[in-house]
Amino acid sequence: MTFEELGLEQPLIKAVRDLGFENCMPIQEQTIPIILHSEANIVGLAQTGTGKTAAFGLPIINNIVRSANNEQRKFKDNKKTSRNTCTLIICPTRELCIQIANDCRKFAKYISWLRITAVYGGASIDGQIKELKKGADIIVATPGRLIDLLDRKKIFLDELKYLVLDEADEMLNMGFKEDLDNVFTRTPQEKLIFMFSATMNKEVERIASSYIDNPIKIQIGQRNQGSENVKHFYYLVHQKDRYLALKRIADYYPDIYAIVFCRTKIQTQEVADMLIKDGYNADSLHGDLSQAQRDHVMSRFRLRNIQLLVATDVAARGLDVNNLTHVINYELPDELEQYVHRSGRTGRADKQGISIAIINFRQKKRIKSLEQILKKSFQQAKIPTAKDVCKKQLFNLINRVENVDTAYDEIDAFILEISKKLSWLDREDLIKHFVSLQFEELLKYYKDAPDLNVDEIAEKEKQKREDKKRSKQKGKQSRQRDFNKSHFAKLVISFGYKDKIVPQRIIGMINEYTPSKRIEIGKIDINNDCTYIEVSKDGADDVIDALNGRKIRGREIFIEFA
Question: Which residue has the higher pLDDT, 437 or 71?
């Protein structure tokens, strides 16, 4: 179905044509008519990169224009005097916020009076306030900055008609649940809600059921399913060889254009630094970069001046980059559903992509879990040998030599002199000299390079020995715990899994805030809403006094005897 057949206003049809779009993508074909012709809430499940922004952006803009026409407002030279906003789009990251706002501006290219404003952290709030004072029909916002501006009374939602939650699952994963609750309390009861998500976990379903009345559910593909255009592979290596495997994979694909996902900001920067040091066109993208730095990195990546972008999941949200050949999971994500987001970065617009996971032997069972989530099979691949890499690189060069443009008069002027200079070399020697010159460093590097693939039989035996040893150690520890229980007190803390709390954080806070005490710490049991911890009885009161009232992510800690 074409966009014109959907009944969009002519300014939008013209803008869509300028963008080179003609036929709708599935999520657009199902969503746009509902927003255009009914007063219904929507819950949409579709993977990253399937055209969700146009699915809600085009019909919302269309309805704003239609409403304006009904009020005898013209397309051109129409001054908006109301400070109120009719559409609010909330998304998890500033990159996605900027991208959605830019896309909506492209859709509204021929609607000069329509004002679209993006508000997000990491940029001057004063500049955003200045823009808001001019009026904003559509606001695209990240949760934190949105609440800040609402508190300052710089955003007015009294006339809000459309509320869009984009990447709802990711907002919940990033801990924005309380912020979303806050925003909902400030919006009118009568409004339409459109919620889009790549994965539909229990928390997303709970929000959908609690905030959205009788939504129309649109599902493209199966739940949490990856793109049909992406092939999934995993490489089995020892943990210590993970970086060598990454380089081997990058070398095997000379034209690679990929995002390499890491779990932490520190790991992201370390891997990027190592790649740059080893001569790769690489850079990092993570939360510690300033907005100017991030923009510079993304500009270079979009121009393909960077082949390998090493990024965290949070930093990569909202990246709109086409033609990625690979997504490489240097580490699998903590939440396996996040893999759907990662792999969805490649294989877009009917092009084929490859998603790679570099894992150790103990992580192999997680591949089985991913196959169940994605409803797809993963193929185990072998890390290319040194010979494989050199052959691939050499023949890539030969292909480039075959296809190079030689129509340069300047070169012709030197051909005779060059031929005389190299006349002492026969054809085979000339090729050897040429290849050696181009690949001297590569050939030296891979001359004695080891096989990085894991011997699974040997690894299984090693794991059995380690498990047996670990079992004995656990037995000793259990007996020791029984001995120590008599002098432990049990405390309960008001933070749990949903607050992203980890044992290291709790231990670190106890050590930090009770520096003069030697407090023994026993078992730590983290539940969804709270955490139970054993501490030595003589230090329990000190721990309670030290931690009560302290803050984690802006929330006060409450701790007492269990």
Answer: 437
